[in-house]
Predict the structure.
Amino acid sequence: MERGDQVDEKHISFENWETMVRVLSPKRLELLRHIHRHPAKNIRALSITLGRNYRRVHEDVAALEAAGLLDRDKDGLRAEYDALDVSMKVAL
């Protein structure tokens, strides 16, 4: 960016540590990693592939989408980034 190069960044904020940990649970991170490598057509296909309950996968997709970590459109579900860079200031 300092050299004038185009930077495609997306910034997401969480209200507090507890919210971030709740949204980025181990199962949801697993789901994000899977979708990053293998975009899914829909939640049903994703739940079958992951061997998880449809309702739980639906809840996870909804939470990740609401947080801005998952994209959904007519083509399906995608996570088109390579990493999450997490920075946090914790007030004492």
In short: The mean pLDDT is 88. Residues 31 and 44 are 13 Å apart (CA to CA).
